[in-house]
Amino acid sequence: MVLLLSLAAAGCASDRTAPGPVTGLNVRADSSTDTSVSLHWTNPADADFTGVMIRRSAGATAPATAASGTLVMDLIDDPVADIVDFQNVTAGTQYSYAFFAHDGADNYAAAGAVTYSTTRSTPHTTAPGPIKP
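The structure assignment produced for this chain is given below.
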């Protein structure tokens, strides 16, 4: 005999509420060559908070969902609130980052977003002019 019991019938409600969003977003160059970016933020204090998924896109528009853009990192059960993004960061490019706080039931908070433009490190290629007497 197989007994099927739903969580609701057992008195357990399923979690459908996301934790609060991350706050205090800050992005800055991490190297003189602008090929890595330091990301800093404050995690929410919600009891069911378990991590932050960070996604990136090129341009001025941050990824809108936890499934769009390029995954930078998904920090799970990690209180760290800063990382360095060094994967395929190109000097002279604008990047937008989205930070999605989440809980263990895969409920994602509204994204905290920030945009950062790396500087172009262009070598000086113009030959000097003639020497004047």
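Interim note for the steering committee: The chain has one domain: 23-117. Residues 3 and 9 are 13 Å apart (CA to CA).
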